């Protein structure tokens, strides 16, 4: 991992179903983050469409975009212009049938580094999206980056798989509802601690009819410490400098968990239930 990585988490308020408007506003916020030195920028889950599937679920197929669609093309140009890495979570049409709840990882030259599709779909998401089936880790000039999306963070196996594949930074774009804030505040530092890595968790903000997401985006260190957190319930950008040397030293000293795993004892973890 690079010695210093300047991370920006964009706690974004989407307008439900207004893709072009959301895209334009996100571009302005990305420019602001880049102007303040951000190198790695992450938007929240389904930033371009909004999240409330009780309202937009039946239209999500029409709002979903391919990699060649206007949102990703625009973000590629922006990443190249600004020289930043951007994680862009959208409804992504990768194949026939239902789209995926995905995050597209774009490099600082405007290239698509990869896509991650949410593996653990929450409640009505199962009606409108296909499940993802892999946890890729991307090697970049900033370090090794993995992505999980929202509900994925409640499954320790997701972050552990990313860590075992080398992830030093795990980004978690989310649309986490306010009534589950305690789970948010427990899950994110714990995923960082048990995997000796950085976790950047960026939540949505705002009301979508009866659904309210309060934000509370945070960056967590490898000892489970919260490095920075947005405490105000409002649209904002969180900035945090991730210390690569701290991570290297901590892992060299053994860290608390990864080197002492005994996977031969954990066979039940991956067994299918009858």
* Proportion in β-strands: 25-35%
Number of helices: 8
- Average pLDDT, to the nearest integer? 96
Would you count the extended β strands for me?
14
- In which range does the helix fraction lie? 25-40%
Strand order of the largest sheet: 5-4-3-2-1-14
Gross morphology is globular
Alpha-carbon distance between the two ends: 42 Å
Strand count, sense and closure of the main sheet? 6 strands, mixed
Can you characterise this structure?
The protein has helices at residues 19-35, 53-56, 60-63, 70-82, 125-128, 156-164, 181-195, 244-252; strands spanning 4-11, 40-42, 85-92, 100-106, 112-117, 137-139, 144-147, 169-174, 198-203, 205-208, 211-214, 218-220, 226-229, 236-243. The protein has 274 residues and is of the alpha/beta class. The chain has a six-stranded mixed sheet. A six-stranded mixed sheet has the order 6-7-8-9-12-13, covered by helices on one side. α6 links the parallel β7 (144-147) and β8. α1 runs parallel beside α4 and α6 packs parallel to α7 (181-195). The radius of gyration is 18 Å and the shape is globular. The chain starts with a strand and ends in a 22-residue tail after the last helix.
Give the tags.
274 residues; alpha/beta; 14 strands; six-stranded mixed β-sheet; single chain
Task: Please outline the helices and strands.
Blueprint: E1 4-11, H1 19-35, E2 40-42, H2 53-56, H3 60-63, H4 70-82, E3 85-92, E4 100-106, E5 112-117, H5 125-128, E6 137-139, E7 144-147, H6 156-164, E8 169-174, H7 181-195, E9 198-203, E10 205-208, E11 211-214, E12 218-220, E13 226-229, E14 236-243, H8 244-252
Parallel strand pairs: 1-2, 2-3, 7-8, 8-9
Antiparallel strand pairs: 1-14, 3-4, 4-5, 6-7, 9-12, 10-11, 12-13
Helix pairs in contact: 1-4, 6-7
